[in-house]
């Protein structure tokens, strides 16, 4: 078995640093945010975030068996070390990669603080001073997420008027790009299992899209997410029906496992198609990109393997003249990691913001000014991610039954 442990004997003493501890905690926002800390003997602590949901803190704890004493500046080597040492745990995909993603982000933050450079500079370049966001919106009380399930609201919550009103509210905040969920209770009638849409269900979606477009016009970018719900024929019918509304994209139309099905849908419509958030590492996205199974690729850096792995996906996309818009349902920690990624990636387009309903989102950071201004986040020039946690706010919002750092 390959050995990715530290084999280096020749290193500048100023960069001869060791990891002394790795910690994780779960903050309950609109999702369960898995926050990570990497502590070092240089007196520097890096912070990161893994994708939401269970199992991550246990996996982070396991990595201490082999990462303590390692040099945090060797970010990519240590990520490979995690994959190798945990290969028997499903380490090439799934939750191990998710946990590694958060550790990787924390390592970049620590490395930037040790070297006195912002993360984007460590990643190689700066292409933009600010990152544009698209705001993920919900019409009224359209849905709630609890323990990984989607609980639909009453049908009236999904009226076209409710979508249009929310679109107006969010554009008034300064956002120039929006996304709504388009999977609805009617999708399950008359059968909740086969993924086939009736003509009535498609017409209901068309009326929603039309109402939003009439409210915000065509100068605001508009996307809709379908959460992998539909059969190929229904996905094609829906995408065709919405072509006239000039969408930024339709997202996750069909289940993610079958590449041929994905390509069939993408090539059948003039409506741009986006997907990619629930795939792991560049290997699971390479064919999707190279075969043009998607128009806009949407990896999640806190899922796919971290910032460097997301840049590998972006490289494949750039080779195929394809933009990348990362999926992001994170706290400000994961969001700022994505901001540095956006600064460093030439074919980056927009970043998702998915915490509009969390009124204490900004409070999680020890800073005076809000992160988001007029639908953009400025790329920080401070070392590392350029942010620090407010530990008191972290402790206040810990998931019930869990402990903090």
UniProtKB/TrEMBL annotation:
InterPro entries named in the record: DgoD-like, Enolase-like_C_sf, Enolase-like_N, Enolase_C-like, Mandel_Rmase/mucon_lact_enz_CS, Mandelate_racemase_C, Mandelate_racemase_N_dom
GO MF entries: lyase activity
CDD domains on file: MR_like (cd03316)
Keyword Lyase on entry: yes
Name the UniProt record assigns to this protein: Mandelate racemase/muconate lactonizing protein
Domain spans labelled Mandelate racemase/muconate lactonizing enzyme C-terminal: 160-272
Keywords assigned by UniProt, alphabetized: Lyase
Pfam families cross-referenced by the UniProt entry: MR_MLE_C, MR_MLE_N
GO annotation terms (biological process): amino acid catabolic process
Source species taxonomy: Archaea, Methanobacteriati, Methanobacteriota, Stenosarchaea group, Halobacteria
SUPFAM superfamilies xref list: Enolase C-terminal domain-like, Enolase N-terminal domain-like
């Amino acid at each position: 078995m390959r050995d990715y442990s530290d084999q280096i004997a020749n290193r500048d003493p100023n960069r001869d640093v060791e990891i002394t501890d790795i910690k994780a905690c779960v903050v309950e926002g609109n999702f369960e945010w898995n926050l990570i800390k990497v502590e070092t003997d240089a007196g520097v602590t890096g912070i990161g975030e893994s994708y939401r949901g269970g199992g991550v803190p246990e996996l982070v704890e396991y990595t201490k068996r082999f990462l303590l004493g390692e040099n945090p500046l060797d970010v990519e080597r240590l990520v490979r070390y995690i994959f190798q040492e945990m290969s028997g745990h499903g380490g090439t995909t799934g939750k191990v990669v998710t946990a590694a993603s958060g550790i990787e982000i924390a390592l970049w933050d620590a490395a930037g603080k040790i070297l006195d450079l912002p993360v984007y500079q460590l990643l190689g370049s700066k292409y933009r001073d600010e990152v544009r966001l698209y705001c993920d919106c919900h019409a009224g009380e359209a849905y709630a997420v609890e323990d990984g399930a989607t609980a639909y609201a009453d049908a009236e919550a999904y009226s076209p008027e409710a979508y249009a009103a929310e679109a107006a509210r969010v554009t008034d905040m300064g956002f120039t790009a929006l996304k709504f969920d388009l999977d609805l209770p009617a999708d399950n009638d008359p059968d909740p299992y086969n993924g086939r849409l009736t003509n009535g269900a498609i017409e209901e979606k068309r009326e929603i899209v039309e109402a939003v477009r009439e409210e915000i016009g065509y100068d605001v970018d508009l996307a809709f997410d379908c959460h992998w719900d539909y059969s190929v024929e229904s996905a094609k019918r829906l995408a065709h029906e919405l072509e006239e509304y000039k969408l930024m994209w339709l997202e996750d139309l069909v289940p993610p496992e079958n590449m041929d099905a994905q390509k069939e849908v993408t090539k059948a419509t003039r409506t741009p198609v986006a997907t990619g958030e629930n795939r792991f590492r560049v290997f699971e996205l390479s064919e999707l990109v190279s075969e043009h199974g998607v128009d806009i690729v949407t990896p999640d850096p806190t899922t796919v393997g971290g910032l460097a792995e997301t840049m590998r996906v972006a490289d494949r996309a750039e080779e195929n003249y394809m933009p990348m818009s990362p999926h992001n349902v994170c706290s400000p920690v994961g969001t700022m990691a994505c901001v540095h990624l956006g600064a460093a990636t030439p074919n980056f387009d927009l970043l998702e913001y998915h915490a509009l309903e969390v009124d204490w989102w900004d409070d999680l950071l020890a800073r005076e000014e809000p992160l988001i201004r007029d639908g953009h986040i400025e790329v920080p020039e401070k070392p590392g991610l350029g942010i620090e946690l407010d530990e008191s706010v972290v402790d206040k919002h810990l998931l019930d039954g869990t402990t903090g750092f």
